[in-house]
Specification:
About 45% of the residues are buried. Strand 14 and strand 15 form a beta hairpin. With about 450 residues, the chain is of the alpha/beta class. It has a seven-stranded mixed sheet with strand order 4-10-9-8-7-5-6, with helices on both faces. The protein is about 35% helix and about 15% strand. The protein has two domains: about 150 residues, Aspartate Aminotransferase, domain 1; about 270 residues, Type I PLP-dependent aspartate aminotransferase-like (Major domain) (Aspartate Aminotransferase, domain 2, 3-Layer(aba) Sandwich), CATH 3.40.640.10. Helix 3 runs antiparallel to helix 13, helix 5 packs across helix 12 and helix 14 packs parallel to helix 16. The radius of gyration is 22 Å and the shape is globular. The protein binds pyridoxal-5'-phosphate (PLP). Pyridoxal-5'-phosphate binds next to helix 5.
Amino acid sequence: MTNPSSVTPNDLSAFWMPFTANRQFKKQPRMFVGANDMHYTTSDGRSVLDGTAGLWCVNAGHCRPKITEAIQNQAAELDYAPAFQMGHPKAFELANRLISIAPKGMANVFFTNSGSESVETALKIALAYHRVKGNGSKFRLIGRERGYHGVNFGGISVGGIVPNRKMFGTLLTGVDHLPHTHLPAKNAFSKGEPEHGAELADELERIVALHDASTIAAVIVEPVAGSTGVLIPPRGYLKKLREICTRHDILLIFDEVITGYGRLGKPFAADYFDVQPDIIVTAKGLTNGVIPMGAVMVTADIHDAFMTGPEHVIEFMHGYTYSGNPMAAAAGLATLDTYKEEGLLERGTELGSYWEQALHSLKDAPHVIDIRNIGLVGAVELQPIAGEPTKRAFSAFVKAFENGLLIRTTGDIIALSPPLIVEKTHIDQIVDGIRTVLKEVA
Ligand SMILES: Cc1ncc(COP(=O)(O)O)c(C=O)c1O
């Protein structure tokens, strides 16, 4: 137990770390003290190659000068401005810049501070939209098994990762779930979109038949599910979902917290799959992960539905103290500049086939039962140790770190998402590093 009077500056006990095996970490800490481009520096002076863009967010690589400078200048010029009933130019500029690169149909932006807040915001917009349109009976939200939509109550309710839900009571009511799309028996070792499973979208018709469309507000899915272990949608699945939603006046929300800002080799997954959602949820790569910020994009139809009534009355009772914060807006603008100057939002298209070939060369490595890839995302799924799920992948993660490579594991899946500045030599190092580690782990 922590005794506050005994705490010293470098004592590790006070910080309750998020999504971390705290006791293991504090026995064997893994500390970063610096970063540059594709690499971190550890507290013992080692260089670690970033195979995960931090947490899927540092798309332009680390400590990029333009972003650093923009934050430094903004801190000296305007540190904070109230977010409610007041504005500052950079938030408007960033919203306009976002819409200029957004998929067709997106017209307005609501700023948040994280992916989780963006999800809550999107769900609330969807519910309120139907209500302001006079369809208040549309209150149900449909998520998907194995979906990850952050950690707040709305997000875990529509999400489908059991350990993230089971501790937290009854969650939101009026939620149902589509089946997940992971079909390893048919689709193992698929390159890009798997062949089988588009018909799983028809399950939405079954859910509509059960609850009636007049009660359903929105469907939320990750176009490519990331945190659950990189589940790539079967070819044609997302188009089918779109058609069914349109048929029943159900809003389609794409959670692009991971897929947004170039991860698939297009600015957004909606572009990649050529499917137009009604709402897009983003965060992470918006500011290169440097300052917390999220953005929810909506169609003009949704935004304009709220713009009624007396003009002095607030149209949507929602917002955060830091919505559109000046420091975050400055970071966002400099990040979008960097993406544009370096062609990073399309770089996954150039490198995708090299990435695919390199990853699939691990097919014969020990313990590998599946490999999946799309854009600059990849997953190597391992056979779990009998009776000890997650242990093999966690050992691989620790060994990779010791060997100078940062990977991410979820369950027994190694998930990879390097910064979009990655070079072929780095891809080789990532793949060789994983091959080495898989030979070492039990
Ligand atoms: C698809 C998706 N939605 C939401 C979130 C939550 O984002 P945050 O951790 O910024 O709250 C994540 C985080 O990984 C995510 O992958």
